[in-house]
Amino acid sequence: MTTPSNGTPATTPATTPASVTAPAGTSPKFEVDKTMLDGPTPKDLLPTTGSYPVEIVRYRSVVLTDIPGAKPARKLTGAIDLGEENLPFYDRPAEGMIVTTEQSWTAQGVTLGRLLHSLALAPGESTKVAVVDWQRTTKATGTETASEAETLAGTTDQNRSISEVANAIAHEEQFGTSQASQVSKSSSGGGSVGIAFFGIGAGGSYSNSSNSGFTTAVSRSTGVKSVAEEATQRISARTQQLATAARSRNMTVVRETTQLEKEQVLTRVVTNYNHMHAMSVQYYEVVQVYNVTTRPTRLERCLFIPL
What we know:
By secondary structure, the protein is an all-beta fold. The protein has strands at about 20, 30, 55-65, 95-120, 125-195, 200-270, 280-305. The strands form three sheets. The chain has a three-stranded antiparallel sheet, with no helix packed on it. The chain has a two-stranded antiparallel sheet with strand order 1-2. The two termini are about 85 Å apart. Mean pLDDT is about 75; it is low at about 1-20.
């Protein structure tokens, strides 16, 4: 079976025709038709590194670029008071940008790092290497549960019943008669005579009066009056009040601590089977190499307003 020049193993189908040639005195040699073999592995199927980033981080930063028409900067001799009235930097608007920066990490491959351990073996020497792995794990779990319930029930019942019956009967009968009669008679008579003769006068007077009267008054009154009254009143009142209060509180605290210690000893035998040369075995740490690229992806102009 033959292999292509790029080192990719070739496969031979079961139906691949093969010819066998066997010269005299030699073993038979199989020849395979190379046109029936698969071609080299496509490049897009071979795993490679450095084509795509494995981690991308983006962040934003604000940058002040220029203050048009600002006063010349003064020498910095100490801390600047931002509340100063004559501060030359913040008396007018300034120009700036909001920069969005992208940082990508692309894996380039692996390389050897620090030398961790070396082992030298003489020709034909055999040594035993023990690797001790000690691990201690402490796990604590705490659970706290608090339950509180409060129940308050109140019932107020008030009933009042008033029943009132009133029965009254009044009967009155009255009869009256009044009669008055009056007769009056009056007569009066009078006369007067006077004579005067040579300064001598004489006179006379006569008067007569007669008055008679008759009065009769009769009054009669008859009455019957009957009053009957009956009143009944019934009042019933009941007041009932019931109050119940119940409070319960439960708290449960559970703490569980688990501690695990694990120790593993791995023993390996390393032998130098070369009887002429010494051998040195070196153990390195493997370091993964990344290519870090930082570039701005977006710029936004902004204006700084002094306050």
